[in-house]
Structure formats: C-alpha cells, structure tokens
What we know:
CATH topology of the domain at 217-346: Ferric Hydroxamate Uptake Protein, Chain A, domain 1
Shape: globular
Distance between the termini: 57 Å
Radius of gyration: 34 Å
Number of strands: 57
CATH architecture of the domain at 217-346: Beta Complex
Amino acid sequence: MYKNYTKKYCGCSTYMTKFLLVMKLTAILLIAVIMQVSAISGKAQRVSFKERNTSLERVFREITRQTGYNILVSGKMLNTSTKISVDFSNTSLDEVMGKCLEGRALTYSITDRTIIVKPKEPIKLSFTGYADGSVFGQVKEPKKGEPLPGVTIKIENGTWSKTLITDNNGNYRFPAVPEGNYKISFSSIGFEKLIKEITVGSGQQLAVNAELKENVAELAQLVVVGYGAQKRANLTAAVTQIDAKDFKGQSSTGIGQAIQGRAAGVQIYRDGGAPGAKVSINIRGVGSFIDNAPLIVIDGVPAGSLDLISPDEVETVTILKDASAAAIYGSNGANGVIMVTTKSGKKGEARLNYSYKSGFNEAANMPRLLNAKEYALLQNEARINSGRMPLFSDDQIRNMGEGTDWRDKILQTGIRQEHYIGVSGGAPKVNYLVSANYLDEKGIAIHSWYKRLNLRTKLDAQVGEKFSMGMQAQYTFSKNQGGASFTNATVFSPTIPFKTPDGRPGVYSKNDPSGSVTTGLNPVAERELSLGYTNNAPTNFLLATAYAEYKFLPSLKLRSNVTYERSTFLNKTFDPSYEFRNYEGELVPSAGRLPANRTFRETYRESDRYLITNTLEFNKTLNEDHTIKAVLGYEEQQKKSDVLYTTRVGGYPTNDFLNIGVNATTGVTVSHRDAGGNVPGINAIRSFFGRVNYDYKGKYLIEAVARRDGSSKFAPSNRWGFFPSASLGWRISAEDFFSPLKTIVDDLKLRASYGLTGNSVIPDFTYNSNVIIEDGYVFNNNAAQIGSLNSLPNKNIRWETNKLLNIGLDLALFNQRLNVTVDAYQRKSEDLLTQVSIPATTGISDDQGILGTQVQNVGILKNGGLELFVSWKDKINTDLGYNLSFSGSYNKNELLRFNGLTDKQIVGGAGEAVNQIGESFNSIYGFKAIGVWQNAAEIAANPHRINDQPGDLRFLDTDGDGKVDENDRTILGNSIPKYTLGLSGGLNYKNFDFNFLFQGDLKKDFLQYGYGYFEYYLQNNNNYAYALNRWHGEGTSNQHPRLIAGSEYLANTVSSYYVQNASYIRLRHVELGYTLPSSLLGKLKISALRVYAGADNLLTFTKYYGLDPEQSGAFGRETINYPQARTYTLGLNVTF
C-alpha cells in the first residue's frame, strides 16, 4: 500500500534511490570549488543602467539589485544630494560608484560585498602643532585595528558643541576647545554609538582615541522566517527572535532549556534535573490531544531536536507563533515553529573559538522527611487507626535516633564539564565552519550521568557570479545512565540501617517486628545491583543537507535542498540473580532473583528520513515604492522507522552476560513493539507552498501564504490538506503626518493575521486494518497461525486544523532604547485526533491483549490570550550601560467539544481528571476539602460520606442534596498555567558585565501524591514531615487528616487536600563576567577573552511542597522523581 502511494502520489522513490549519488557529487564539486577560490572585487561586478534626472537613492537600489552588494549610506546624505543622470553599459562597479559620487563631498569603500558611502574629509590632519585646548585622536574598528573614516564625532557640554567627521585615516581634531567637562560621541553607520566623558584643561592637548563595535543588528535587521528571512521592520507575523548572547553563560544541556523565560507565550518545562533530561515545549497553550510539540527547524531544515544542540553552537533562535509565520510549514506548523540558526563561517582570516564551562550541581529543593523515631511513632498510630497491631514496640522507639536518610545516601555532588571548539573563516567565494562540542555531566543521584558529543560542519561556496552551493552536517553521539530513584529513597523506611552490624552494605529487606518480612531492595542496592549490566543506551543522530542555488536574475533564484536524517538507539540490560538477606545476615530463600530468572532485554530503534525541498524566490523593487518578494516551493518527505524488542528469560549459567547468548532456543521473545509502545512505521508527505510579500514605501505591508500537504496517513478521500494565511501591516511611523512625533517614536506598526495550520501526528495507515499474525489454536496436533485485527480502521479521519487569529503592535521609542511588542491571539483547534477505545465485543485487541482502538476526530479546543514584551537599553555614560527585558503572557484554555460530550468525561488512572465543556483540558477533578471532622456529633449534623469518622477529611456538598457522594466532585484546578513570565537584565561597567534571568508560571496547580503516601500506599512507607501536623485528637488539626496504614479509605477519593498551588518564580540564571582588555591580549595573539562565573536555579519562590513545581504533569499529577539541580559554573570564551 505504501509503495503504491509513494510511487503514484509522492514520487519519492526516484529521488531517494539517487540520494547518496547526489551527496557524493556535491562533495566532489565543493572540493573543486575550494581549490579554485579567487577574489571578487568591485572590478568584477558590472552594471547596466540608464536614467535621467533620478535620485542617488534610486541608483543605489539598482546597483544593489544587479550586483547583490549592500550599500550603507545615511538618509541625510541621500536627501541633500542633487539629482543625477546616468548611462552605464556593462560598466565596472568601481567606475559606477566613482561617477555617481563625482563632484560630491562623498566617498566610498568596499568591504565584504558591502559598500559604505561617507562624507569626504579633504584636509588630512597632522598631529603636530596643535593649538591650545585641542581634542584629537583616531577611531578604529576593533577586529583588525584598521582606521575608520567618515565617523561622526560630536563634542558638547550644554553651552559649547562642535561636530566633525574623521578623515580617510580615521583621524580627527577639535581645535580651540574651551576649558571644561564634555561628552564626546562617536557614531557611524553599522557601528554602535560610543560616548565618552572627558575633561579639557586650560591649554591642554587631549588625545581621545576610540574603537567602535560593529552593530550586527543594524547591519542585518533580518529575522529568520520559514524558507527565508525578512527585515524586522517589514514583519507582519508574531515572531520572537532570541540572540545567543542572551544565554551565553547558562549551564543548559540543550538550547530548549536555554531559551526558557525569554519569549512571551512559550512554556518550556524540564521534567526533573536528571542529566540529559529532555524539555517539553508548548507555544500558546495546549491545542491537541495527541501532540503539542512545536516543529523544530535547524538551519532551514525541519529536523532534529533542541535537546541535541548546545547553546555554544547557536547564533539565533526564532519562534514563529501565529498562522502568518507558521502556515508556510502547513501540517507541521500546528503547534508553532522554533527555528535555530547555528554558527557559520564568515569571510576573513581563520578564527579559532574555544569555550569551556565547569561547575558542580546540588539538589535545589529537598523537603524534609520523617526521621526514624517520627516514622515509627506515626506508623504505629496509622496502624492503630486502621485496626491493626502496632509495628514498633515502645522500647524500639525509645532506642531510635535519626535513622537512615536514604535520600542523603543517594545524593552526591554533581560535576559538569562542557567544551566547545570551532574553526571558521572564509574567502570571497567560500565560508566554512567546523566545530565540536563535548558535554560530560554527572548527576546529583549516585551513578547517574550523561555524555554527549556533537560534531558540526558547514560550507558555503560561490561558483561564479550566479551559482552557489554548500552543505552542512551534524552528528551527535550520546550515552546515559539513570541514577537511584528519589521516589524509592523518599518512601523507604528510615528505621532500616544502611549497613549491617558486621559492616556489610546493602541490607535488602524491611524487617517487621511482628514477624513478617517485607522484601525490597533499598535505594542504594537497587541501583548498584544493575551496574555493569547495561550498555548505557548509545544513541546516534545524523543530519546532513546539501544545497545548490542558481541566480537567473538578480531578482530571481532557484534553490534545491536534499536532506538525510538518521537516528539509532540500542539499549541492552541484564537482570542478574541475587540473594535477599535480612538485617541479621540470614538468607531469605523465598525472595531475591533465582538464577533461572536471569533476564536479558534488548531494544533497538532506528529511523531514516529523506527530505527534498525546491524553492523559487523572487525579490524586486518597482519604481522605488513597490517591493515584491515571493517564494514558491515543492517538498517531498519520506520517513521509515523500525523497532525490535528481544527478551530472554533463563538459560544463563552466570551473571556475566550482556547479550542474547549463543544457542538461545528457549525463553526468547521477539516483538516489534518495545516496552514504551513504539512500533515500526512508514509514511510520506508531498507538499506545495508559496508566500508573497508586498511592501509599499515601507508603510503598507501585505503577506499571503498557502500550503497544500498530502499525507499517506490519511485515506485518499481526505489525503490532502490546504493551509492558507494572510496578514497585514501598517507602519504608522512612516506616514508623513507622523513626522512631529519622530523625535520620540522611532517606529510604530500595527499587525493583523489570520490563517490555518494542520496536524497529522497519528499512527501510519489508520484508515486500514492492521493484522497480527500469531500462533493460535492446535488442530490435529499442529499449531495453526491465525490473523487478528488490533485496530478498527477509519477512512473518514481528517486533518487536525488550527484556526489562528492574531492582532499585534510593535513600538520603538527614544532612539530604539524602549521597545514594546503586544499581541492578542485566539487559537481554535478543530477536528482533534485521538485514539478512542472500542468495545470489547468487537473482539479487537493488540498483541499485548490490550483492547483495540480507533483513531477519530473527537474535539475542539480553544486558546486565547495576550502577550507582552518590553525592553529598555541605555547607557548612563561611556563606561556604564544597562538593559532590562520583560516577557509575559496570559492564556485561557477551553474545551468546546469532546466526542459528542454534553457534560463531562472522567479521565486518568484514578479518575483524577475531567474533560468538561467550557473548562480547561484535563482539569483536576475531585472533592472540595473544607477541613477535618473533629467529632461524631459534627459528622451527624452535616452532610457527610458513609463511614466518615473523626479525623477524616470533610468534603463540601456541592450540589446541596444533603449528602456527599460522587455527584459532589468538582474541578479543583489545572496544570496549564494561566500566566507565564520572564524578566532578564544586564549591567555593563567597563569590562565587567552582569546578567540575570527570572522565570515563572502563575495560576497553576498540581495533584501532589506526596501528600498521600500513608493514604495511597501500604504500610512501611515514609513521608514528608508535614505528617507531624496530622489530626490526632479533637482540635489538633483542621487541615491534615488522621493517618491510616492502608489504601482502603482514600482510594479513588482525589480531593483539594492533595491539590497544591504550583505557581513559582525562579531565579533561573545569574552571571558575572569580565572581558580582558585587548591591550593585554595582543602579545598573546588572542582576539578576545572573557571569563565568567554563574549560577542556575539559585532561588525559587513558591508555596509548592514537593520536589519541584516546574513540570508538565500528566492529568495534573506530579510526575517528577528527580529534583532540579542548582548549578554553579565557571567558564571562559576565547577567540584566536
């Protein structure tokens, strides 16, 4: 079926069979290009253009269009220039520029395909014979120390001011400067403005030299978007771009963790602090029942994972949030898009960059547990309340001390080291980068660690004037080992010693003085027993892309990309045999693992993905006022995955095995479904897409996007989905009537967009039946194979569709010092897909005996909210500057329809969540606790449950029928936060810099099962110290109930007592750095060197009583069993 589809409808097979050949040819061509690099100068560029009485700006635009060279020139120079008539025919660029500037007080220079136009300084200054009271000096650029001509310099003190520009050698001189204090400023196109404070004495000749830093933002002003880039001023979509300098010192494992708290409307959670822990990301709320992860795009290629990219490798991260930005990705962009641009080579001499981070980790938050004496007292009390015999005698309790803190036994100081080295550079025709990143992290739990190696290469080559090509590749190898369980360390009895009297470690059993023995590995032994019996799950990931680009015209180019992605995972574990011995060292023969039960497991997963993208891009300005940009594209994708899960029980003579073993004939099971439910798959997508942008005089902006996707996951009748969008923008600040406000308001733009995106994250070929072949019945002493269905087909399933509306405002004030972005949005997700259980009477089940399912379109979700981003950046003087940024969002999630539901549907393993029309998805559901029953009379006089006793939780009779039953359950909260926020800032003083980041969630709840270890689990489990505040007699507590030693009372009675406010604000990162002066580095041939110290997760402000409030939480439950780590880091960045 798949082959027919891909051949007939996708046509992928022709491309895929030639993929390796294309890659080989690409490599050969690239090598040839590198060997034949030659310089491109202004003489090699030719211009043909004829026009009378036109503006210099019009001529410059035509030069840029024909040559691709950018021209930097101030508006003041253009406005004061007279009209010009030109007639060029295949004229060299140098000659064209000379003719254009002939007779004008302007000159130019060409650097790296950029033409800088500046005023002439006809007088070459001499530094001899200065008059009294003069200020003079030279201005340079910092990289090579070359002089900067044409820099505007202003000196002023409120009563006296002068302005001039530097000459061709970067020199300047202010003669006859009166005595006094002054501010002197240096500004030039493409460089950051520099202000210094000086004092000029009577008759003093004062030398003031300056180095100007390149202003990358001013030079580029480009924001990466789907299949291209746009000027920030022309954006009509809701887009956030984060620069790598914002998170340069964080001790983040992956880039997903690094951008946490830096973008409004983006929720990022790291479920625990285990080494290598992955992050989960939601953009603008939960909009799907199956998958809410955004699309990840790395260097323009939809592929990869944020967890596999080090922040040291990244240049920018761009987040596409509305339909106008994401619709170009169609069925992949339903949950938003995160685009990562990694570092690239730049023209110039080879540069070597090296970064090193080293630090140590500690547990950020560990709520106190009961010690041994407290535990014994409360266990006895709980057993008596349950009508059982006490567990410990009075003499035993009197002789108890603190006991064993099992969490302390599994905790250690984590060590973290990360190295990054990159070599980059380029010639006029070739840019290159080769980098390596290595992370070695030891966790805060014993025996936990994560190691990762990243290799990356990039190469871009210009072959002639019209043809260019390149390639990029990423390879990642990682291994990890899980540590001891914090859950087990929390509940394990503190009365059991860590070692026996004769010093033997690893006491394996829980001794019950009543005579029974409850066996179970202690947390340390549990982990150490498995050491050496795993291959630590090596994972390989490869992403390789080659491209070719041809310019038919300066305004028209064709680009073709070929991408290959492969990942493999191999996990081997062996369960050895072992013995249980009690505290006295006596063998417990009924426990342990016998040699006959030694077990080997092997899980192997692999996936291959092929992607071909062809785009035709057009960019042209007509009559100076009308700019049209367009892109048309065609894309094909094929993905195949396989799973093999093998187990063998028994047949191993010793514990020295980590493989299936030879001659394995019995006890072996092979399956194509692993323990995590992963199964093989194959699918293909064919896509057509386009985008058109229109810009009139930089005032009125229009964008239209459309994409059509065809997926093999849907039946032919519903195979194709269409996802259009449109957006408008009005730059009010560019209007003539706005001129009086330009001294205050630099930019004011209104935006609006509406469009559709899609989602197809469902199993492959769900419109067809899947048949399982297995041994069935015995006929005539022979086993007969039978086929059975494990799912019910559904040919009517449709694409999930997101309808997104966005209205936004961008505002810049006070010379770009204050920037404000506001967005209001509504996201309506329709035809939501999910797996629905089907009746057992159908006879359909999977190979594990689990009831069958059917994929259906079942619901509608709505998210609506507001986003705000405010930033301020300023300099107090030449030495001191600062910046502040705030991002905040409000989101309301609402279920509008769910599988024909008219009221509510209870979900979750313990019925702890509900889907109810008009409420948030998967809301926490249960009884409203209003206190604790104090006596029998109080119970009799009020609505209560059957069997309620003094000390039990008292629940609200919500329906007012005079009794408390299942009808009184109500919504208690939701784990989806209403508000998210981030606050970052920085301070720069001379060569010192200080940065911080706060991040938080507000109006969020979790169902904290830690509040119920006595209630939900059997006896012998420890608990948090809150249990000391339990009810143990009338008037002793109206908050915490009495303790019981079993699950008979509170099973299936989720209540608000267990629901906690999980709102928090966290000091996510703080950092202090120092950049060594260039004067100290010159002799060492070092371009730049910065050292810094930082801390992550330093403080958390929350009322949550548990390991950590930062988690996603299925059905609102606390799922974390590894606390967040507080990290202290020392690092350096050096460039040669």
